[in-house]
Amino acid sequence: MKLVVNLGKIKELRKASKLSLNDMSKQLGFKSPNGYFYLETGKTKISAEMLANIALILNVPIDDLFMEVESKP
């Protein structure tokens, strides 16, 4: 098993917190919502620092943003 960022959960938590893509983008310092959208959809890799900031904004432990997947042999 290995851990990967759970992008679906990040999106669910953002929506549950009533934060728009624009809200998240601004709080994370992006100039447009596209920067954050690319992170949330997996088009851009999320750095450890960015993931920590996302966890803070969503008010969850960073561990909650990961999921286990089977690693290929």
From TrEMBL:
SMART domains: HTH_XRE. InterPro entries: Cro/C1-type_HTH, Lambda_DNA-bd_dom_sf. Residues 10-65 form the HTH cro/C1-type domain. Gene3D superfamilies: lambda repressor-like DNA-binding domains. CDD domains: HTH_XRE. Transmembrane segments: none annotated. It comes from the Bacteria. Pfam families: HTH_3 (PF01381). This is Transcriptional regulator with XRE-family HTH domain.
